[in-house]
Amino acid sequence: MSWYLSLPLAIPFITAIFAFFARKSVYGKWISVIGSGASLLASAALMYVVLQEGVIAGQMGNWPAPFGITLVADLLSAVMVVITAITGFAVAIYCMGEITERMEYLGYHALFQVLLAGVTGAFLTGDLFNLYVWFEVMLISSFGLLILGGRKEQIDGGIKYVTLNLISTILFLSGIGLIYGMTGTLNLADLSLAVERVENQGLLTVVAVMFMIAFGVKAALFPLFFWLPAAYHTPAFSVSAVFAGLLTKVGVYALIRMFTLVFDHDVQFTHTLLLWVAAFTMIVGVLGAAAQSDFRKILSFHIVSQIGYMIMGLALSTKFALVGAVFYLVHHIIVKANLFLIAGVANRIAGSTELSRIGGLYKSAPLLGILFLIPAFSLAGFPPLSGFWAKYILVAAAIEIEAWVIAGIALLVGLLTIYSMTKIWGQAFWPAHPDGIEPKLSHMPKFQRWCYLLPIAGLATLTIIIGLFPEPFVTFAERAADQLLDPTEYVTTVLGERAP
Amino acid sequence: MAQAPDRSTGALDYLVVRKIYGNKAPQSGSDETGDKMAQATGDGPKSNGILGPVPVLIPLAIFIWSLSFIGPVSNGEVVRLSYDWVPSLGISLSFLIDGLSLTFTLLISGIGALVMLYSNTYLAGHPQYGRFMLYLTSFMLAMLGLVLADNLISLFVFWELTTITSYLLIGFDNESAKSRRSALQALLLTGAGALALLAGLIILGVAAGTFEISEILAKGDEIRAHALYLPILILVLAGAFTKSAQFPFHFWLPNAMAAPTPVSAFLHSATMVKAGVYLMARLHPALSGTDVWMWTLTIFGAVTAVFASVLAFRQTDLKQVLAYTTLMALGTLTLFLAFDSGYAITAFTTFLITHSLYKAALFLMVGCIDHGTGTREADILGGLGRIMPFTAAAAALAALSMAGIPPFIGFIAKELMYAGAVEAATSPVFVASMALAANALMFAVAGIVAFKPFWRPGQPTPVEPHEAPWPMLAGPIILAVLGLIVGIAPGLIQGTLVTPTVAALLGSADEAKELKLWAGVNLPLFLSLGTFAIGFVLYVFHQPLRRTLAAIDARAPNFDRGWDRVLDGLKALAEFQTRLIQSGVLRRYIFITFATLFAAIGTTLYLRTDLPDLEGIEVLAPKQWAVVALIIAGTISVVLTRSRITAIAALGVVGIAVALIFIMYGAPDVAITQLLVETLVVVLVAIAMLSLPFLDKPGRHDHRPLDAVLALGVGTVTTITMLLVLQQPIDLRLTEYFEQTSWPEAFGRNIVNVILVDFRALDTFGEIAVVVVAALSAYALLRTTAKEAQ
């Protein structure tokens, strides 16, 4: 069992080491692609095993839980690992087109792989402190990627990014200390049992709120999201694609994990709070997007808004709503990473991401137009694309329990999302280019063109597949939601004989 | 490369397109004419090649295929097909062929085939013809899916597909700002309606316990009695009214005329805008019959019909005139759906078919005029009858049907409307007078559109007028002649389409009324005669009337401008909010983050816990007080000093004081680590800071008092939380386990070391990665040259 769990984690680290030593050669990028491909295979194997056998757990160093560190994969973890590997693989190919030799020399591919490792680790760990370690790995490697290149705006964004995330880190660590003081354990499965024994349940709620804020910063919830729009438009496009796809989702994952497995003692309070936060996050994020005029800034604020949808699913905490949250999570990563990749192509052939300075893409690069419309309409929730089902399930889940207000907000925000996505289409694609040039895909060298377009087309295809054949994905999300709502299997698998 | 001129009226989208792309070797002014375009097939950019007409085959095949259902449907059968799509959500891809959906299918595919044939000539040589046909075909398939769907969610999927494809079609002239604005307006307005509709459909599905439409229709009484009937109705109607452009959501439709004329003919008369009407008809058995339904549809339908007829009168661009008459038709259709009497629904069905036939014909005819003369201005056009005889004939036939003159089908439809109005349940006088007003105006408009341009003197047109080529004439002629044929022989559509449709709405074929040209001397006949009289007068005086209307209209509130104001307001709100929140100032971000922490923790403490019991706290010894004093002093120095060196040194003091605490509580190893780290940090940071200037003096806006308050607040709630945690019994399972196993199993005497390298080796591995990556990042940053940083 252990191998299935540790390979997806070990491969990116090994790849990082090789990529670092090959950073001065042309092989560095190929090592990164091959390593990412291997990760994808390993995570597919993990998924297969979890689908066949249910939750699996591995005790690192063979120290029994809760004394050592446990890696554990239920369906949610497994799908997050797979989607991380898919994103990593797609972006690694894209990097071959985008990343300059200079950035490779500065260790780009190694940092990239360590980031993927950190994300994977966070999804696989069954230990609260170990989760903190993976957060740190992610934070430092993402900071490195963010400032690589050293332009002034990158440094400016990077400082805001790292400062605010460090606050989150400190809160997370304080929370760990407090909950350890109350329960004497760090193993998540063990914690889910131990919290029931805590006398002062009110105090547990206080600690839960502390975790909510720590993860809220990571997930870019209102009013803690400032670091995201400050930083995401500055680095290389492949970097912002990985960030957009994965970083905030680790925060969302952590919230889902903690508030289904550990902090489910005071749902009335914590989940109501989460619901309000979700509502504000949705609205403020989408209005922020409406005010922007840069391709990537619009997309960045959309991330915030859509995090709100996922948290809405968690906050409603019915099975159907959790199905929606899981579905949304997966859909969002694919679509959002892809849109950032597309922004990179637009920038490459039209010369900017500032919408007022580009245009003409629809006429002279129609393929890019189609490739943009698929994720863009998906993001806006148009059927029959993945985003429609994600939104549909959440809205239907809200209506089912007569949560009218949040259902209305979710729909209204959908409309505003359409508005801000058409802003990109209506400025970068439809009108002629202000400088009179005709941006064409064929202006790029052939190799670069393939590196750019293959991952974009692949991710767009995934969006369409999920949209047209949602049934297996919905069924999967239902099973994942079942596991979240009833963690018995998770707990017994991790604790073995020690489980009650 | 020429920019498309943005002519608001009379713009010939076809010519504009050609000026940009087509015609490599212009010979004379008359080269801009459609004749030569049409004749020049095979000549490079002027033709779409042999594949050009291929898309026509798709609707044609569908049309022929759907004809085969006429037999079973007219026998009262209902054909149902169903495929599982998302069974776990109760969503199936199921289709229903009954009178209503078959009528729509035939109209969509039949008119679709003619429109596509027309487009192949109209857009001959257009470089984006391929895209155009792709959008148009996708749209048509989506529309067919919509009318055939037997599942609420499947229906919605197709509904939104029509929204997307029509967005792309309205914005087809993508370099014109006007087209883009119209496309966006249509998308947002119908998109907003669609979201309401989605909510309505979900509630309806939850209320009925199924998403299958045919099952829902059987539960009409249950739904009408349901507690959520009113929200369902409002939300569904919001979707239908926006899509079918009912007042006050009407304004997007005339703007959508920025699309190429075949699109207008297809989407904006025959099909898409009728999607809302279709939806109301489809759900009629489940939702109608209540007072709310009846009055809402009556009022919205009547107001739309009359308002639109008046505005139609006011236009001078023929395409705009037709756009407003379409609004009138949509209003009328809605009006008659308000009722459930046999006459009203028969009138609805007959008028639906009638309108599709004549309106598509007229739009295509206007395209021919536009194509042949270079303008669509009613005031300029005249005397075309001899030059464009076929266009004139088609126009005349279609217009006679629109004016409701016997023996055209339009006459029968009008008679039925009056019959339906007279027996209307709400207010017969109101409904009849509304219908009368609308019909009279239609009579006059028919004259403006189809009589004056051909048979009255006009002014010279931009292009020497000439007849349109046959593929463009086929559509209008066939459709207009059909209007005559079914008028003379209404039996052709009675049993095949009208009766089955009425049966689909009212549940019984017996409710359908007979379509006949001569129904005897009765009230509807007198109303018809009155319509002609008023209509004739209106036509004669239409020019002075139009001037009066224009003057009134200029002062009346303008919905289109109101729309702009809504969007501006939204933008202003968005920008205000973003300035407020995303200020770009890190200090403020940090403040808000900590303020959130303080508020959230503080509130939760207040609501969920009691204050810690201070009695049990051990009293500090003097040496402990000394350490506390050291920490406080260090902190205060950090905050107040302007020297970076002093600040870092003071921070070092705090660190050392913490190390002292570790010593006091018996953890010397941790204390040593802490001391080493602190020393290293102070030294390294101090070296780095040597070259930096002093910190600025606090300016007039000194934030520090407020920051201090917040800091104290955060400190207080954290301390309270910690005291509360300390009062919990501590569970030492892990510690005991480590003590027991460290030596016998992990072979290490130093428990901390064993934890680091064995029990929790993965953490250590991760932290090593952190340090290495930090070094790498720092290296990368240091190697960045000043040039790169630009």
Describe this structure in words.
The complex is a heterodimer of chains A (500) and B (790). The mean pLDDT of chain A is 94. Chain A has one domain. Chain A has 500 residues and is an all-alpha fold. In chain A, helix 17 packs parallel to helix 19. Chain A contains 21 helices and two strands. Chain B has 790 residues and is mainly α. Chain B has two domains: 562 residues, no CATH class; 73 residues. Chain B has a two-stranded antiparallel ribbon with strand order 1-2. In chain B, a hairpin with a 4-residue loop joins strand 1 and strand 2. In chain B, helix 5 packs parallel to helix 18, helix 13 runs antiparallel to helix 18 and helix 18 packs across helix 23. The longest helix of chain B is centred in the first third of the chain and has 32 residues. At the A-B interface, helix 5, helix 6, helix 7, helix 9 and helix 10 of A face strand 1, helix 7, helix 8, helix 26 and helix 27 of B.
Features:
heterodimer, A: 500 residues, mainly alpha, two-stranded antiparallel sheet, 21 helices, 78% helix, globular, B: 790 residues, 2 domains, two-stranded antiparallel ribbon, 35 helices, disordered N terminus
Whole-number count of domains of chain B: 2
The proportion of residues forming helix of chain A, as a percent range, comes to: over 70%
- Global geometry of chain A: globular
Helix content percent band of chain B: over 70%
Class computed from helices, strands and strand pairing of chain B: mainly alpha
Provide the low-confidence segments of chain B as ranges.
Answer: 1-45
Number of H/I helices of chain A: 21
Tell me the major beta sheet of chain A: 2 strands, antiparallel
Spatial order of the strands in the main sheet of chain B?
Answer: 1-2
Element order of chain A: H for helix, E for strand = HHEEHHHHHHHHHHHHHHHHHHH
Using only CA atoms, what is the Rg of chain B? Answer: 38 Å
Radius of gyration of chain A: 22 Å
The outline of chain B comes out as: elongated
Contiguous runs where pLDDT drops below 50 for at least 5 residues of chain A? none
Largest sheet of chain B: 2 strands, antiparallel
Say how many strands of chain B there are. 2
Distance N to C terminus of chain A: 22 Å
Task: Identify the quaternary structure here.
Answer: heterodimer
Average pLDDT of chain A, rounded to a whole number, is: 94
Q: Order of strands across the widest beta sheet of chain A?
A: 1-2
**What fraction strand of chain B?**
under 5%
